[in-house]
Design goal:
Layout: E1 3-4, H1 7-29, E2 34-40, H2 44-60, E3 63-69, H3 75-87, E4 93-96, H4 106-112, H5 124-131, H6 142-153, E5 162-166, H7 173-182, E6 186-190, H8 197-201, E7 206-209, E8 227-230, E9 234-237, E10 245-248, H9 253-256, E11 262-263, H10 270-289
Parallel strand pairs: 1-11, 2-3, 2-4, 5-6, 5-7, 7-8, 8-11
Antiparallel strand pairs: 9-10
Bound molecules: nicotinamide-adenine-dinucleotide.
Length: 293
């Protein structure tokens, strides 16, 4: 059965490396990285994500700045805060927690973040550079970057391989497919209109699934020996759990782990890596802004 790709352990190691770099930077130039988080509205899941990100910042020595705004605040208010953080030299990364309330123009808001501080990598200029040959984005979105880091740290060869990304969202699927392509994989993208997802996925040496449907990807979808990265986080009813539910991925783990050569668990796979990459992007930003090598 498949080797388990331990994202939790991998993320811990990365956080330790980041903490050591931050101490070195602080000693050398007296600067610590700063991350600003803007949270609009009161979605429970967004609040949890923001809290986890801030805890992780504290753990490695990144200062976090937070702005919480009510659901009904104006777009101008959000833009004003972004503008202040763009100008604040103690802030090296700006994160606008998505989704934004429906009355706001997400494109306009993400456009307002300075590309030098776009640690989520969602600014169209950074995405555009990611898509173009010979261009370098300043930042790569954290979740797909975490997937690539897991592949690299587990010695998975990408160049020349067939890769299938299931899902094509702006925050995960699309950038994941661009990253794999940049590393010379031949990619196919499976989405909600794909007629024969099983057949296409079975051609892949590397599968990244980011859909949000529990147990969508069955063992029969996986080519024997493939590497499977499961980004999905889906609650399913579980009367045995104190919360009444548990979290599973998009991939039917029991089946796929019988066929794959390596697989990420949910939880404990991509999730912890996403936060580690956020910290890493914030550190990289501070280093670039202060020209610290
Ligand atoms: P999304 O809803 O924005 O996008 C889902 C994508 O899946 C769409 O492109 C859609 O075309 C595709 N899709 C929908 N139904 C499909 C089907 N039956 N077959 C094939 N494709 C289908 O979601 P998202 O923001 O990309 O998130 C996807 C999943 O990843 C969610 O479960 C989310 O919770 C999880 N996620 C995890 C992390 C992490 O850190 N681990 C980060 C972000 C998102």
């Amino acid at each position: 059965s498949a080797k388990v790709i331990d994202g939790k352990a991998c993320a811990k190691k990365i956080r330790e490396e980041i903490a050591a770099e931050i101490s070195r930077m602080k000693e050398a130039i007296g600067v610590v990285p700063g991350l600003a988080v803007i949270l609009v509205g009161s979605r429970k899941d967004s609040q949890t994500y923001v809290r986890n990100k801030q805890k992780a910042c504290e753990g490695v020595g990144i200062t976090s700045h937070e702005v919480r705004l009510p659901e009904d605040c104006s777009e101008e208010e959000v833009l004003n805060h972004i503008s202040c953080f763009n100008d604040d030299p103690s802030v090296h990364g700006i994160l606008v927690q998505l989704p934004l309330p429906r009355h706001m123009n997400e494109e306009r808001i993400l456009n307002a973040v300075s590309i030098e501080k776009d640690i989520d990598g969602f600014h169209p200029l950074n995405i555009g550079r990611l898509a173009m040959q010979g261009r370098e984005p300043l930042f790569v979105p954290c979740t797909p970057k975490g997937c690539m880091e897991l592949l690299h740290r587990h010695g998975v060869e990408i160049s020349g391989k067939r890769a299938v990304v299931i899902g094509r969202s702006n925050i995960v699927g699309m950038p994941a497919s661009l990253l794999l392509q940049r590393q010379n994989a031949t990619i196919s993208i499976v989405h909600s209109y794909t007629r024969n997802p099983e057949e296409i996925t079975r051609e892949a040496d590397i599968v990244i699934s980011a859909v949000g449907v529990a147990n969508l990807v069955r063992g029969s979808w996986i080519k024997p020996g493939a590497v499977v990265i499961d980004v999905g986080i889906n609650p399913v009813d579980d009367p045995d759990s104190p919360r009444g539910y548990r979290l599973v991925g998009d991939v039917c783990y029991e089946e796929a782990s019988q066929v794959a050569s390596a697989i990420t668990p949910v939880p404990g796979g991509v999730g912890p890596m996403t936060i580690a990459m956020l910290l890493s992007n914030t550190l990289d930003s501070a280093k670039r802004i202060h020209r610290f090598k």
